[in-house]
Description:
The structure holds 3 protein chains of 3 kinds. Chain A has helices at residues 12-52, 71-77, 80-111, 118-125, 133-144, 151-157, 176-199, 203-211, 216-244, 248-253, 265-274, 279-307, and strands at residues 55-56, 66-67. By secondary structure, chain A is an all-alpha fold. Chain A has 2 domains: 12-52, no CATH class; 74-307, Orthogonal Bundle (MetI-like fold), CATH 1.10.3720.10. The radius of gyration of chain A is 26 Å and the shape is globular. Mean pLDDT of chain A is 83; it is low at 1-17. Helix content of chain B is 24%, strand content 33%. In chain B, helix 2 (92-102) packs across helix 3 (107-120), helix 2 packs parallel to helix 4 (136-150) and helix 3 crosses helix 4 (136-150). The mean pLDDT of chain B is 90. The model of chain C is unreliable at 275-280 (pLDDT under 50). The longest helix of chain C is centred in the N-terminal third of the chain and has 32 residues, at 70-101. Chain C is an all-alpha fold. The chains are: A mainly alpha, B alpha+beta, C mainly alpha. Chains in contact: A-B, A-C, B-C. At the A-C interface, helix 1, helix 3, helix 4, helix 5 and helix 7 of A face helix 1, helix 2, helix 5, helix 6 and helix 7 of C.
Amino acid sequence: MTMIDTAEPGKKSRARPSFYFRYMVEPYLYLTPAIVLIALVMLVPLVIGISYAFQSVNLLRPFQSGWVGLANFEALWSDRKFWLAMTNTFWWTLGSIFFQFFLGLGLAMLLNTQFHCKRIVQALVFLPWAVPTFLSALTWAWLFNPTIGPLPHWLAALGILSEPFNILGDKHLAMWGPVTANVWFGIPFFAITLLAALQSIPGELYEAAEIDGATAWQSFTKITLPFLAPMIAITVMLRTIWIANFADLIFVMTGGGPANSTQILSTYIFTTAFRKLDFGYASAIAVALLGLLLIYAAILLVLRRKLVKI
Amino acid sequence: MARIELNNIAKAYGPVEVMRDINLTIDDGEFIVLVGPSGCGKSTLLRMIAGLEPISGGDFTVDGKRMNEVPPRDRDMAMVFQSYALYPHMDVARNMGFSLEIRKAANEERVSKVQEAARTLGLSKLTERLPKQLSGGQRQRVAMGRAIVRDPSAFLFDEPLSNLDAALRVEMRLEIARLHQRLKATMIYVTHDQVEALTLADRIVVLNAGDIQQVGTPLDLYETPANKFVAQFIGSPTMNILEIEPKQGGLSLKNGANLGVGLTNAQAGARELGVRPEHLNIVSPEEAHISGTAELVEHLGSDTNIHANVPGIGQVLVREHGHFALKSGDPVGIALDLEKTHLFDADGRRLAA
Amino acid sequence: MSTLRNSSPLAVTGKYLALGFYVAFALFPLYWLVKIAITPDKLIFTEGTALFPSEFTFENFQTVLIATDFLSYFKNSVIVSVGTAAITTAIAAAAGYAFSRFVFRGKRLIIALMLITQMFPLLMIIAPIYKIVAAVGLLNSLTSLIIVYTAFNIPFATFLMQSFFDGIPKDLEEAGMIDGCTRFEALRKIILPLTLPGLGATLGFVFTAAWSELLFALMLINSNDTMTFPVGLLTFVSKFSVDWGQMMAAGVLALVPSCLFFIFIQRYLVQGLTSGAVKG
Lengths: 310, 353, 280
């Protein structure tokens, strides 16, 4: 702010820059550090990363590097593992988001009422979000292990499993493991954001609805949901993208196995890049994933514009 | 003390011009009220004067010095906000003395000025409270106190009373009038309430859709409104507007009633006649210019408002002094005080005789 | 409102049952973590599925604190997380303020760019970042981690700070500017004191995120001296043929600061996202 010389308003030549400064340049003073960091640490590497998708960058074959055009993508097209990972990504994301959202919504609605020890309860139920990811992955892996965890025994007792075995080792059931851990970890996010949205709904609206004779269910569908809709749209979109990109849980719990039954695109990227050291191919998978997510976001944004009226 | 001049001031948001060619001279020590319906640009104009909103064109000068690009802190103006904008984390004394604190005034000076202002406004016992511990009226006083302490060259008020209840509003209005008498400072006051405008102003500026409609003393605006908008905006209840048909031999209303007055040449283009409710009287059928039935009678004690339905003309509002014994449904004859009528042309301009 | 409706005893019981379910679901895995950490090694497998260990011991904690490099990992993590949280919050507060208070050219573009950073798989940029960091000679330094984490967290922190600023009426800093402040002074003396809960929430949020990041730390740090605790914890797996008890004890210890931080900030997080909660 040192350059403003406004004590002499008579001098037009000096006053002009300060005028310009105040309304056009000043916001960028506040934004520059953020923009520079994001550009250098995220956007530049992103462009480089995308360019890898069109190159052969394999640390195991360092002499064959160079531009290869669309070769990586052609390989991708005929890669059975890629299509399997894509299907798994779909189920992983859908299952996680479905339970996270509805359980999170339920929790937010509960926390929006009055009850004893509310502060403590709220702090406790939000706690899973603060747990480092791989620690929760390990804990859940333990819980599912029949020798050291109680879950298989409980499931067997309930008749859901025929005998207490580790579902993480079962081709058909393995995905439920990481999904459960992810739901546990992700409920607080939805609960926090939806609780915030619930609290900003004016109480008079419910009173007006009650006087108009609305039932509890009607005021939920006619008032609560429409008011939550913008927040729901944005959080579901961000979370879906985030979950689809989220490799840590699966990587620590199952490593993509057994028999690739829990291999999702992001874990496939990770193993391709850091086990096979084939960065070109890994980037091609990542670009494909990015493309899918962009399409998804675009569809959701269009839907949001059509459905959300507030 | 300051003489403020606006020369061809314009305001645009991007390509959208919302205000242009605003010209206004405010004399030193004058109390000017900017009034108009919501969205007319009165607050924007005030904020441009304060420096909170960039001026897109024209010259804004204070005592002859161009101030367009001067930031608010160097304009030496104090402002009272509609929301009061008290700093929630500072007590009353610190709120009032904040401008002196920023200017690094001596401690004793600050304390004595704050104490003096607090005494004038009856806030002496509240100086250590936080804004959230005050009532609406007290907050309003603190906001005024903050302005007084600075001893600025001009005071700006942005609808300062609109968040108060009716009784408090009257009280604070008097307080502001007294303040102006005592300080003799230039004051610019924005309101949509014409009663505030009429009671406080030396001169009123009526704005509509970004244009100045008229500038004048309260009496000027009441007696000789420049156009139909001002005529209807100033005065309560609102002026009646009746369609007319200029005919040979004088002025007649739409239902054919001849008022028996001639038109000057200047008034040849008259299309409508305006007459305030207080300039209409309920009379016997023989003396009446027009007649109809009383649809609704409001007994206010000091006055009686009669909403009459006149066939061929429509609703006409008559205001009689004191209690007037009349029921809904009664037939009424209405006479116009022909000295006090106004004629408007097709564009709504008032036509002088 | 809904409290009136829920007054039937059945509904109240249902509500408390549901709350009980959520609390149990949230806490049980954490309990299991603690249980394994305090179970003596010999009992870990024999009493694997028992809800309570028949004996308990703090030996694992002792070993972790004394015989391993845990304290060094812990110290590194504290440096990285506190550094990241402080720098991110400062930068995001400035950017959030600009978004909240200014209308300017390029605003939409910048917001769009920030949203894009939330969309792509971060895995994609590990390799390029590794190359860049190696090129400037910052491998195995905590500085590189702080810079990278700061950039990752800025977009979300900025949106969070913006919503806090949006909750503070513009009138306040305008009054300040009329009272003689520059915009920056008004920000410092009037707006920032009012945003303290928001700053706290952002600090805590970024702290927890930095505290648990694994992949980039794994890539950028090889030397034992500069390992953060998630990376260090993985060495328990490889070095000592997985000593689960010790690993869990280390995990419990590492969990404490981030959980404490989060319990402290979660209220402000809700408040900050509630538009207009700060008003009045």
